[in-house]
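Milestone M4 deliverable, item 7.
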Amino acid sequence: MKKIKALALFSGGLDSLLSMKLLIDQGIEVSALHFNIGFGGNKDKREYFENATAQIGAKLLVCDIREQFFNDVLFKPKYGYGKYFNPCIDCHANMFRNAFYKMLELNADFVLSGEVLGQRPKSQRKEALNQVRKLVREVGEEARFDPILDRTQASGEKPQFLDELLLRPMSAKLLEPTFMEKKGWVDREKLLDVSGRGRSRQLQMIKDYGLKYYEKPGGGCLLTDIQVSNKIKNLKEYREMVFEDSVIVKNGRYFVLPHNARLVVARNEEENHKLDIQHPLMDKIELLGCKGPLSLVDKNASKEDKELAGRIALGYAKTSKEQAYLIQIGDEKRELYPLDKESAREYLFA
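Output delivered:
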């Protein structure tokens, strides 16, 4: 008998971890898909992801969809944004889209998610789950899914719609049975009926399973961070955003200069590395005569704004305000005096 294979959306949280465990305990082979959308946080969690999935016997697959998410979802969600700049419903649907593409590629049988009914006010209400279901069904209309669907329901041996191959084990008993449950691939009686925002039941399950690696409940998406959200809104109002902007809204001190140019100044060595990118619309400010932060300023900034940007960058370096220092802005070198941090704060975007 063919071994059933499932792909799980794995955010790193305990709900997705427990969902995978429920199916692995039924003898199903589960691979954990972690989609990097570029806004999951600034810390590298690869080691945690590997430890968390290994402890339950799931294989980890990390998929970089940052550019696709930026181009296709971030600025044109069908179902709008949450409180900040978070297109949660469209983001979830997009992850399912990519998961189902991966399902075809890996010859897996279905996709699962750790979503809990009623847990998140924007994306996990019953209405929101139905909206995601509608978007997934639209994805299923693509011709690539013809081999796994029976669109006419002539035989009943295949699902009619793609969303029938989406399982939410944590709340399955509160939702309509999926194709997998109807066919006996998954034992519905061994799935759960969890709902609401409380996590006591999940935390008890973690304890009962003896799992060591799991993330405590809490939001991790930077699109729900008010500072990141406000920077995106501000930059978008100023000009058309490009993919490289996803780096500058997450890192560094963000300034709006008198002639409307934008400046980003790294806070530490880690941000120096992250901001060391080839940005099509911004020039690097490199400090040649002292040690200090890497900065980025708009290429089309006025001469006055570029000079001010250089002075602000020098103010955050190891400098003396009585001394001029050599810096390079784009291809141009110049000597400037540092601007003290107190004066620079006037231009800092709150």
